[in-house]
Amino acid sequence: QVQVVESGGGLVQAGGSLRLSCTVSGLRFGDYVMGWFRQAPGKEREGVSCISWNGYAKHADSVKGRFTISRDNAKNMLYLQMNSLKPEDTAMYYCAANVRGCQFSDYWGKGTQVTVSS
User: Fold this and answer.
1) Which residues pair with 59 in a beta bridge?
2) How far apart are CA 43 and CA 51, in angstroms?
3) What is the Rg, in whole angstroms, of the alpha carbon atoms belonging to the chain?
4) Exposure b/e, 17-35, CB count within 10 A at least 16 = b
5) What are 61-99's pLDDT values in tens digits?
6) What are phi and psi of 86, to 5 degrees?
7) Is 59 left (phi over 0), alpha (psi -120 to 50) or beta?
């Protein structure tokens, strides 16, 4: 059974930073594309950042230059470093495994809330 668990969300002021972490079990982590998605109230879920097994990363235009996705295949861990946070970054953030096109995925965590105050 695949389990995906996020952590690291919280409340931060605009301009601040947060680091999200995700641990995955039940699959060969190093074989899969991983990603972070987010969903704000009243909006559709969107792909934020995705990373291939060997570290090739892709970021949404809205977060380029501010967010960095990384992974540690030896520890089955995925990270999202978020800097220069803006109120519009407020959302539930989800970790996903076996991501396709940075849009679809087979395995999802329950999410971690990020709230950025102005």
Assistant:
1) 49
2) 24
3) 13
4) ebebbbbbeebebeebbbb
5) 999 999 999 999 999 999 999 999 999 999 999 999 989
6) -120, 155
7) beta
Three-state SS for 91? strand
Contact (CB, 8 A) for 88 and 56 = no
C-alpha span between 104 and 15 (Å, rounded): 30
SS3 per residue for 8-65:
CCEEEECCCCEEEEEEEECCCHHHCCEEEEEECCCCCCEEEEEECCCCCEEECCCCCC
pLDDT at 32: 95
* Closest listed residue to residue 20, CA positions, set 45, 62, 41, 48: 48
Instruction: Return d(Cα 62, Cα 72) in angstroms, integer.
Output: 25
Q: How far apart are the C-alpha atoms of 19 and 79, rounded to whole Å?
A: 7
Tokens read off for 26: 């039940």
CB distance 79 to 21 below 8 Å: yes
Q: Across all residues in the chain, what is the average pLDDT?
A: 96
DSSP 71: E
